[in-house]
Amino acid sequence: MANSQYIVVVGCGRLGSILANRLSSEGHSIVVIDQDEQHFSKLSTAFSGFRIVGDAVESAILKRAKTDQADCFFAVTDQDNINLMVAQIAKEIFQVPKVLARVYDPAREQSYQELGITTISPTQLSAQAFLESLQLAQAVQV
Asked: What is the pLDDT of residue 70?
């Protein structure tokens, strides 16, 4: 693949495993980091990337994942504080050009954005989907 990227994914829950599986199938080089080895069972048998068991807050784990060589870094654990911390480390210390973090609490999004970290908020996306659905329902009734 000509535009294959090296991507580090922190968190191998539902979202992290979907991202890792899909990106791996598209030919990208993927490293997934998770504290719980059992979470790697969510990866497909076709997953061709690497798995690292450990705490991504520890710089030794991020070094082992060769984060300094990453084109992109996804922080998608289920904990906002962890995501913010590892995303900030990836951006500031490892100089990863594209850092994205999942953030559940919309009030925290500003903190991420001030640090130059792109956020994806399931809470905001869900609210938007509900509001759009309501508008569509009202438009149909008119």
From this structure: 98
